[in-house]
Design goal:
The chain is of the alpha/beta class. Strands 2-3-1-4-5 form a five-stranded parallel beta sheet, sandwiched between helices.
């Protein structure tokens, strides 16, 4: 990537967005923002209770992330955001047209195992099925790359940097 882009690290819960995002940002020399920090308290309460968010719940969250990405345009940045649906990514692109997505993708069993080991996170493993049901992978016309989440965090971050470096135009 020849210019500083804002990278959205996306994927279902448990893929490592919060772990890989800061590693990727450090490798790219740009700031990192934790997508969960943009959630209104009502969203966190719903998810903590095991209730999936609706699209109406997500719009203010996506708008806040989009505003952050817009503010980083031309400077670069990395932000985590599940961005599971095309419509969510379209909303982020409407706010920040140059965003590039890194879809952290992996086997459901691997992701469930990682979620079961997490401590102190508001997203229960019970919501993983709804996450996979909602997921719409990147389409050919979307600027982004899919990165396998097998292996350790450093290996995944290296894989993401390589994939971003190889990214020239929307697939």
């Amino acid at each position: 990537m020849s210019t500083p882009h804002v990278v959205v690290v996306m994927g279902v819960a448990g893929t490592g967005k919060t772990t890989i995002g800061p590693l990727l940002a450090a490798r790219l020399g740009v700031p990192y923002a934790e997508g969960d920090d943009f959630h209104p308290e009502a969203n966190i309460a719903k998810m903590s209770a095991g209730t999936p968010l609706t699209d109406d719940d997500r719009w203010p969250w996506l708008d806040a992330i989009g505003a952050w990405a817009h503010g980083r345009a031309g400077q670069g940045g990395v932000v985590s955001c599940s961005a599971l649906k095309r419509s969510y990514r379209d909303r982020l692109r409407a706010a920040a047209p140059g965003v590039v997505f890194v879809h952290l993708a992996g086997d459901r069993a691997l992701i469930e195992g990682r979620m079961a080991q997490r401590r102190g996170h508001f997203m229960p493993t019970a919501l993983l099925d709804s996450q996979f049901a909602t997921l719409q992978p990147l389409e050919e016309d979307e600027a982004g790359v899919a990165v396998d989440v097998s292996g350790g965090p450093e290996e995944i971050a290296d894989r993401a940097v390589t994939a971003l470096h190889d990214l020239r135009t929307p697939r």
